[in-house]
């Protein structure tokens, strides 16, 4: 069984899709940390645990005929991306004076549960197979979606974006907000796991540092500078 992409997953894709450069993985990453985002330390142990949770969910999903929709063998980077994005969106909320309640977060999860049911899967199956998100992180996803929803409404004058022009306006504003928040936090990824890429707002494989092999095209390689926002 495959999962049909819903508007919510399209919104998540919109939130993490952008153009730009990439921040370097250089700098000090504290011992045992997979990444640092402001005062938030994402430990390598926590990352390993959540990757194991995702792989366990994949095993359960596949036993029920639910196939993962994200690229395989990239679970570590995918999970670390989520862990960083949750902090980035908390910073976006702080920068924009957005405050969301637990009830607002739960409403987002209720909507996602309804969409999961329409695809004949559980919410846990929906977020793991559809979004490479460990089910343990569903509460953080609710918070993330509530912040995103509040930001969308604020960007477009209190209305949800429905037209292509409105979506483009939202995407441009989100790109700016994600860039600003990432820079405010000084997101730094342990080189063992990659770098924080401003094109996709995700953790990607670090570019090779040796000149032995031909360099990939600039569009395929994260630059090692922070972009202007």
For this entry, give a set of tags:
single chain; 229 residues; mainly alpha; 3-stranded antiparallel sheet; two-stranded antiparallel ribbon; 7% strand
Give a quick precis of the structure.
With 229 residues, the chain is mostly helical. It is 51% helix and 7% strand.
Low-confidence stretches: 13-27, 210-224
Question: How far apart are the termini?
Answer: 41 Å
Strand content: 5-15%
Q: What is the number of helices?
A: 7
Biggest β-sheet description: 3 strands, antiparallel
Q: What is the CA-atom radius of gyration, in angstroms? A: 18 Å
Give helix % range: 40-55%
Strand order of the largest sheet: 2-1-3
Q: How many domains in all?
A: 1
Strand count: 5
Q: What is the residue-mean pLDDT, rounded to a whole number?
A: 82
Outline, from the CA principal axes?
globular
Secondary-structure class: mainly alpha
Q: Secondary-structure element order, as H and E?
A: HEEHHHHHHEEE
């Amino acid at each position: 069984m495959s999962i049909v992409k819903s508007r919510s997953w399209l919104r998540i894709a919109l939130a993490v899709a952008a153009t730009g450069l990439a921040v370097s993985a250089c700098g000090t990453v504290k011992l045992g940390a997979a990444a640092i985002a402001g005062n938030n330390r994402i430990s390598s142990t926590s990352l390993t645990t959540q990757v194991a949770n995702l792989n366990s969910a994949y095993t359960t999903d596949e036993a029920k005929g639910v196939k993962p929709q994200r690229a395989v063998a990239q679970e570590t980077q995918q999970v670390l991306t989520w862990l960083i994005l949750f902090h980035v969106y908390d910073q976006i909320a702080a920068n924009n004076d957005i405050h969301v309640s637990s009830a607002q977060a739960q409403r987002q999860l209720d909507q996602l549960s309804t969409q999961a049911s329409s695809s004949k899967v559980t919410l846990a199956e929906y977020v793991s197979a559809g979004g490479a998100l460990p089910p343990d992180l569903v509460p953080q996803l609710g918070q993330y979606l509530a912040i995103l929803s509040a930001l969308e409404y604020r960007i477009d004058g209190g209305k949800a974006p429905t037209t292509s022009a409105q979506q483009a306006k939202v995407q441009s504003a989100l790109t700016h907000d994600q860039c600003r928040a990432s820079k405010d936090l000084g997101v730094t990824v342990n080189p063992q796991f990659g770098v924080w890429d401003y094109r996709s707002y995700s953790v990607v494989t670090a570019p090779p540092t040796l000149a032995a092999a031909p360099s990939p095209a600039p569009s395929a390689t994260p630059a090692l500078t922070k972009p202007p926002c």
